[in-house]
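Here is an idea for our session: we take a single protein and study its fold together. Which protein we use is up to you, so please pick one and set it down. Once you have written the record down, we can walk along the chain together:
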Amino acid sequence: MSSPGIFPTFFLSGFECSTFEWKDRGRRDLSAELQHYTHADEDYRMLAELGIGVAREGIPWPLVDKGNGEYDFSSIDVFLDAQRRHCILPIWDLCHYGYPDGLDPWSPAFVTRFAAYARAAAAYVAERAHHGPLCFTPVNEPTFWGYMGGEWGWCAPFGKTAEDRRRWTTQLATADIAAVKAIRADHPDARMVHIDPLIWVVPPRDRPDLADEAHRESYEDAYIAWDIISGLKHPELGGSPEVIDILGFNNYSFGQMEYAGGGKPNQPLEPDDDRIRTLCSLIEEAWAKYRRPCIIAETSGLHGGRVNWLNDLMTEALSAVKRGVDLHGTCLFPAVDMTDWNTGEWLHMGLADVEPLPSGALMRKPYLPYVDALHRWQERLKRSTKLDEDPFDTPVDLDDVRDAAERIAATPDANWH
């Protein structure tokens, strides 16, 4: 007997693909800034050689949607070719923080235009896909985008209030639901991965009077989009458990925070802060609310901390598995390094770092300690460290994951490296 998972490999990865209109730089295409279009074959070959058979990839809505129902998807052909050549299953991000110029984000047209685009994008990749199932993330991180575009003013639509944030998050969730239904009208078996950060917010030590505000961010605001998409709230918008489908939990070190008063980002807790919760408890809490299959959709440490981060992350994830969480994979994100959105400095958080050459090319340089740590975890979970010729013939056996959790006696620990 076995318990087949959703994906062909337990470890996933992905590429930074934001297309936001940034506060002081206008429209950006992070795939171009990473030279991912140019290096697509190399980038996907690296994943295959690491035993990673699934990758989050972006379709840049603001760039392919020409208006009046016309689309030019040719920019993603290099991704499709590389995925086919190296046997990588994509999870397509259809909206990664960006929407077309001239589109009123607050209007009903935003929802209908996104749904039409999503249907067209699904048709395009379905005709060229080398393997199923078709997988999509309609709107990436709608709750986080609600903050950075609706309250902090970092990117379009440049809102500046909590009311703007909640309204924007609701609009994104509404568009997401419409996109899911548009795609499934043609592809009823398509899978959807709905992604947002796992967060924990505490009041400042000297401001216990802010406990209610911190609690609201942790238990209400963090779940606005998922509550709508799952149908727990505003069922008139069409959400349901089938629509939300697969949950994607993003986890970074700055996800546990001290409440800063609203209108600006909260302050990340220091690693030794006794208010930090175990990641296991956050995963279990979020999963229990919706009871849907889940993945860790993004995670990474920085610089030399990537190895310890992965070890801690996997111990917490397997501890959650022991508690009954239906975990289907972990996405080490990004595959290739990304820059700080504000400063442009390389963050050194990928499976491969980027080394700028005098010619302007961005050479990929795998971070070997991180790669070695990945291989150790693949072996513990009885996963291959390199893709074979047909990685899709057998999905991950989740019993192997559960067995590993018991074998290594995974226990949660709030003392993160």
The chain has one domain: 11-407. The mean pLDDT is 96. The first strand starts at residue 11 and ends at 14.
